[in-house]
Amino acid sequence: MVFYQCSKCKKVWQQPVEICPECFSRLEKVKTLKAKVVGISKVSISSVPHPEVPYFALVLEDELGNKWANKSVKEYAIGEEINFTTGSDNSVAVWRTKYDIIDSIEKIFSLLNLSLNENLKIVILPTLFSPNHAYFRDNTSPEFLDAVLKFLFEKNIKLENIKIATQSFDEAPIEGMAQKSGLLDICLKNKIMPLDLSKSNFVKKGNLEIAEDILNADIVLNLSMMKACKASASENIYRTLKKENFASLKYLQSEEDIVNELKNNLTNIVTLGEADFVQKQNKTIVYPGLILGSKSFLNLDRVFNEIMMVDKLPEILKEVDIQNIEITGRDIKEVKCINN
Ligand SMILES: [Zn+2]
């Protein structure tokens, strides 16, 4: 849990208000690790934001005495400590982003048991599908990309080892999309020149032609902007293919075959699913306030659609059985969101 404490008068806030409202000093981030239950209310009546009942509204307290509310479907006793176990390789981590995206990315990495070292070569693959402003939630949001970069810098990843890359699959030029979405500004602010994959080298792997930069990376961070009723994380992975190759594969085979071949050839993908504000099927926006993470983009898409309670799954997810997916962090019953 992250709190913000005034360096002078020591008052503590849950929100990152930056400047202390009492004495105008700067606030410092304070991270705490333990959380024990100090209050419990059982809720048995469902409501629009909480469709699954019963659940427990807990009051938690950390080792410094900070308190906050937390929803849980698991019943706890007063005094019990809350622990989250880490998952195995294809598990999906689900976490609530409160105010601090960097902190929630860090939590996802720890739930997935993934560590980073300073020599890793990382390619960031943002979602960049349309020349739209950030509030449409079509593309990765500027604040999410900025938080991912700050997280990598905090982990001492070298600037020269980070690439930000994607490409356009339609008529809209990638430069225009990067500019209008606000992502270009974030790249330049962090001194990274984005890479247009369509102008890079591709390597043949079976039926696929995959960008060489993607194959050579230690980790490809697939930044997926999650949308209800879509396989957003998997669809973003298509952008690692040569445009003409993807078009001909789509003509010759099913999308399920393409996605499975990609899954077998790309073992360096870590998907971060951005799901704070999310587009529903009718393009209006809801606020699940979530972040998801997984080494399996298909499992992540399946879990997200379960959270959004969609009635019709995208074709490529129909064979992915939710019962076989290990979920860590938050229980999906706690974070389900009515999608109508
Ligand atoms: Zn103060």
Cα distance spanning the termini: 32 Å
> Into how many domains do the coordinates divide?
3
CATH fold annotation of the largest domain: Rossmann fold
Question: Approximately how much helix is present in the residues?
Answer: 25-40%
CATH architecture of the largest domain: 3-Layer(aba) Sandwich
Q: Helix and strand succession?
A: EEEEEEEHEHEHHEEEHEHHHEEEHEH
Strand content: 25-35%
Q: What's the average pLDDT? A: 94
Main sheet record: 9 strands, mixed
List low-pLDDT spans: none
Overall number of strands: 17
Number of helices: 10
**Tell me, what's the shape?**
globular
Name the ligand types: zinc ion
Which class of the largest domain in CATH terms?
Alpha Beta
Radius of gyration: 21 Å
Question: Which tags fit this structure?
Answer:
about 350 residues; about 25% strand; 3 domains; alpha/beta; 9-stranded mixed β-sheet; 3-stranded antiparallel β-sheet; Rossmann fold; binds zinc ion
